[in-house]
Every structure is written in structure tokens, then in C-alpha cells.
Write a structure and sequence with these properties.
The protein is of the alpha+beta class. It folds into 2 domains: 4-189 and 367-449, Zn peptidases (Aminopeptidase); 191-364, Alpha-Beta Plaits (2-Layer Sandwich). The chain has 11 helices and 24 strands. The chain has helices at residues 4-27, 44-60, 124-139, 161-169, 227-237, 266-276, 282-291, 298-301, 340-353, 374-387, 432-449; strands spanning 63-66, 72-77, 83-89, 109-111, 114-116, 147-153, 175-178, 181-182, 186-189, 191-200, 207-209, 219-222, 241-244, 247-251, 305-306, 310-311, 313-321, 325-334, 357-364, 367-368, 395-397, 409-411, 414-415, 429-431. It has a 6-stranded mixed β-sheet with strand order 1-2-6-3-7-22. Strands 11-17-18-10-19 form a 5-stranded antiparallel β-sheet, with helices on one face.
């Protein structure tokens, strides 16, 4: 099929509406983790999303399998000993502040050429786009000399227990990609370290803010004493806030932790302001002395960066100060050539000086695949042929995609260089025309990888 590109376009157009409908149905399942919800590892809604995706796959003609424990599922087509993998996830982060959404977060709405809803960009939309791209190849009667397996994860936004279980008991693809980042592709991903710093709470301070390690918190509420003084301090510091009947809400800007420098951390700002009005505690002193609003934590780690992946990134994602403990939940993106243990030792020693103990929550190793690798060259050729973009180069990222779960995987789309990433943010959406272009790229990529 030398004219595969010409044949693909009309075939993809035939099934584009079906892709939209399937994605809308999947977006309407609020697949946010809830480990205490029934006999499901990550909650009933995530289980429903997995079952729905497998049902969609079956209707498209794929062979499917669902892990009996509910951690993952997969859809497969083709024959042959070798297997190409596509890794996507079906869990999503919480909606956040509903009043900042123009549409209901778990009701897929199409308007002005876009589809809005939590998961449209991260990662239900790209995952289904790749699935339907392969369906177009199937409709054209393309023979697959290699198997293509879509592996659907359910715990990507937290601990990757789904991928851990898959890798323990299932066949590992020889290579592949995860449609959960940007084009043209990501050849290096920083190490991802998530941790708690905690110590005994010996003050009357009571705080709870933030939703996730990997999201810059956009609000931090304070309901304690000295509220008028806090307001005065916030005004002096020029920190945005709101006052309501329950207290004061310090306002920030939510972004993904991989681009922490583009956000405004409401927790950090609240702790800075509380220090201004005389409050002291282990977490207040730690943030004020060593972090302030520095997304790179230079006072702790120095100028930590490398040519392949850039600077170390540091995000205080959550705080919990209750009757017993003070706890900061922190996300660190470590450059690919940096030593993780050195990072841990440095942070642990400094935290100890403030009465805070280092407790590791999760760690994902970095990945780095040279640009002359077969996989990189193949995917770049496809991207350039479909888009005619000969300028954009493979990039490094602070993001943590499933690409690092297996050897010889990269993150590949679905956001184009000129587009804005809306993952983890209010009004998350995809541009439908751009997603259709991504489907063309995914179809060609699978075709070329299975030749």
C-alpha cells in the first residue's frame, strides 16, 4: 500500500463522528480515583471507564482482555511474534473549582470546533484517537505482521499501580508510544519524585489545601484567627485572595507540576503571608526560608539542570496541618543526568533541620532515548510527512507519561507545538480538527511500525 496516506484520509473521515461519540460517552464517566468505593482497586467510576473502553474496542473489532483485579485492560489486533504497544490512561484528575468551568466538567460539550470536558486532552481523547486510527487501517484491510496492543491504565494520575501489575504478569511490547504529551515527540522525561515532609504539629495551626502532588494548587483556604491581619499582609504582598463566610481563600494559578514555573502556588503564598503576621511552624519556616515562590528550589539544590532535560522543578502540591502532624506533599522533576539519591539526601538533611522527616511516596525513573534510535526516526518521519513541520524537534519534558513504564517507549502527541495544553486545568478541551490530524499521524505511525 504505497498510497496509504491517500487512502487513510477518507477512511478516517468516515469514522470521525464515531470517535466523537465514543469520546463523549467516556468523558461523561467521572473516573477520578476513589480507593474506598466498593470492591474496585481505584473506584467504581474508573472501573466503569475501563469497561466502557473495552466495550468500544470490541465493537471496533479488537480482541480484548480485562485484568480480573481491575487494574488494567487491553485491546489487541494483528498477528506475529512481535508486539507494538500504545499506552493510554483512563483516570483523570478532579475537576477543581466548578465555577471556573464554562461547561460541566463531566459532560462532553462540543462548541466552536472544540470538545470540552475533563479527560478530553488527558488522556481519554488521545487514547481513543489512536484506537480509531488503527480502526481506519483495519477498515482498509491493512495486514498487520506485528500485533498492536492498546494497554489501558487506570492509576496514572497517582501511583501507576496498574502499569506495575501489567509489567509483572503480562507480555511487554518491543516498542511503542504513549499519546499523552506533545508532538513531535518526547525523547527524554525527567525523573519524578513525590514525597512527604512531615513532623509533629506543635502549634495551633490547622490547614488543608491542594488536590494532588502534580498540580500547582490554585486555592488555599484559611479559617483561623487574625484574618484581618492576614488580609492586610496579602494586600501588602500583592497576593490575590477572596473573603467569604468561611474565611479567606488565597488564589493562585493551577498548572501541571511539569511546568510549575507557569503557575502561582496558593499554598506557598498563604504560608508566606502567615509568616508576615507572626505565625510560625515547621512547614511555614521551611517554605519561607527555602522556597518562597521559587519553582526551582535553588536554595536547596542549587542550579540543578542539564542540557538534555533542563532545570529541576519543585512543587508543593498539598499541605495538611491537623492536630497531630504538619505535612507538605511535594513533587520534584529531576533532570535525566542528575542523581536521585543526591537529591534525596540533600532535601532530607535540610528538612531535618526544620523538624520535618522525609517520607518517599513514589518515584518514577527518568527515560532518555537517543534521537538516532529507530523509534525516534520513524515517528519523526511520520510527523513531518503529515504536518509538513520540518522545524520542530524532539523535546525533553518534565512530564511523567507511561512511556517510562517500559523500555523503548516515547511520548508521542497529541498536543501540537502551536497549541495550548489544558490538562489538569478548568475548561480542559481539545481542538477537533487538530485531533483529527493527530489521528492521521497515529494511523501512519502504526502502519510504519508494523511493516
Amino acid at each position: 500500500m504505497n498510497n496509504i496516506s491517500e487512502l487513510l484520509l477518507p477512511e478516517l473521515q468516515k469514522i470521525e463522528t464515531d470517535f466523537h461519540q465514543a469520546l463523549m460517552e467516556l468523558i461523561e464517566i467521572p473516573s477520578v480515583i476513589n480507593e474506598h468505593d466498593g470492591n474496585y482497586p481505584f473506584g467504581k467510576q474508573i472501573d466503569l471507564a475501563l469497561k466502557k473502553t473495552l466495550s468500544i474496542s470490541e465493537k471496533l473489532g479488537f480482541r480484548t482482555f480485562c485484568d480480573p483485579k481491575g487494574y488494567y485492560g487491553y485491546a489487541e489486533i494483528g498477528d506475529g511474534k512481535e508486539m507494538i504497544g500504545v499506552l493510554g490512561h483512563l483516570d483523570v484528575v478532579p475537576a477543581g473549582k466548578l465555577d471556573e468551568w464554562e461547561t460541566p466538567p463531566f459532560q462532553a460539550i462540543m462548541k466552536s470546533g472544540k470538545m470540552y470536558g475533563r479527560g478530553t486532552q488527558d488522556d481519554k481523547g488521545p487514547t481513543l484517537a489512536a484506537l480509531f486510527a488503527v480502526k481506519a487501517l483495519m477498515n482498509l484491510g491493512v495486514p498487520f505482521a506485528k500485533r498492536i496492543r492498546f494497554i489501558f491504565g487506570t492509576d496514572e494520575e497517582t501511583l501507576w499501580r496498574c502499569m506495575n501489575r501489567y509489567c509483572e504478569i503480562e507480555e511487554i511490547p518491543s516498542m511503542g508510544f504513549s499519546p499523552d504529551s506533545v508532538f513531535p515527540l518526547v525523547y527524554a522525561e525527567k525523573g519524578l519524585l513525590q514525597l512527604h515532609l512531615e513532623g509533629k504539629n506543635e502549634t495551633g495551626l490547622r490547614l488543608m489545601a491542594g488536590n494532588a502532588f502534580n498540580a500547582v494548587p490554585d486555592t488555599a483556604r484559611y479559617s483561623g484567627e487574625k484574618q484581618n491581619e492576614l488580609i492586610a499582609a496579602l494586600r501588602t504582598l500583592d497576593f490575590a485572595y477572596e473573603k467569604d463566610e468561611d474565611g479567606i481563600v488565597v488564589l493562585g494559578k493551577a498548572v501541571h507540576a511539569q511546568v510549575v514555573e507557569k503557575g502561582i502556588n496558593a499554598i506557598n503564598r498563604l504560608l508566606i503571608a502567615l509568616k508576615q503576621i507572626g505565625y510560625t511552624s515547621k512547614t511555614i519556616e521551611f517554605v519561607n526560608d527555602l522556597i518562597q515562590e521559587d519553582p526551582f528550589a535553588v536554595k536547596i539544590f542549587g542550579e540543578n539542570e542539564d542540557e538534555a532535560s533542563g532545570k529541576l522543578k519543585f512543587n508543593v502540591g498539598k499541605i495538611d496541618c491537623n492536630e497531630e502532624i504538619e505535612r507538605l506533599s511535594i513533587d520534584i522533576r529531576i533532570p535525566v543526568t542528575a542523581d536521585k539519591q543526591t537529591i534525596v539526601d540533600t532535601l532530607s538533611q535540610l528538612a531535618k533541620e526544620y523538624g520535618l522527616a522525609y517520607k518517599e511516596f513514589d518515584y518514577l525513573r527518568s527515560i532518555y532515548i537517543p534521537k538516532d534510535h529507530f523509534l525516534i526516526k520513524t515517528l519523526m518521519n511520520v510527523y513531518q510527512e503529515v504536518t509538513n513541520d520540518l522545524v520542530s524537534e524532539p523535546i525533553s519534558s518534565g512530564g511523567a507519561t507511561y512511556a517510562r513504564a517500559m523500555e523503548n517507549f516515547v511520548a508521542f502527541g497529541a498536543v501540537f507545538p502551536h497549541q495550548t495544553k489544558t490538562e489538569h486545568q478548568p475548561n480542559e478541551h481539545i481542538d477537533l480538527a487538530e485531533m483529527f490530524k493527530a489521528m492521521q499521524i497515529y494511523a501512519r505511525a502504526i502502519y510504519d511500525l508494523t511493516r
